[in-house]
Amino acid sequence: VDRGIIERFERLVTEIQSVVPNVILVIVYHPQITSCPFLYMLPNAATITELIVKFSPMFFNIARKFKVPVIDLARTFNPYDSSDYGSSPIEPSNTSGIMIAELALHIIHHFEFGKEEGWLGT
């Protein structure tokens, strides 16, 4: 990943933490791969996976540096399981929304912001 992207992301986290110190980084999930007619509007699955794999280490490194947690939705949602998605291939279902909320709630109750090295939730 280009150093400039990393530096801009670090500045963004710094700016956000100046207003809201307890930041949770979130790695985006894959869109539902088997969905039509939306599939033609999305990059192919291999491209999306490549981007997530390429940028995930940046999230983990920044989480360690800023001592914030990461929720990795790319490892949480199954892009082949329609029950993980709502009315479109880019929206979580009610069940997945609850899962995201439970991950965030777990972090809020158990993560020591600014003290722990970083935490991965999936």
Automatic annotation (TrEMBL):
What SUPFAM superfamilies does the database record attribute to this sequence? SGNH hydrolase (SSF52266)
Protein name in UniProt? Uncharacterized protein
Native organism: Lotharella globosa
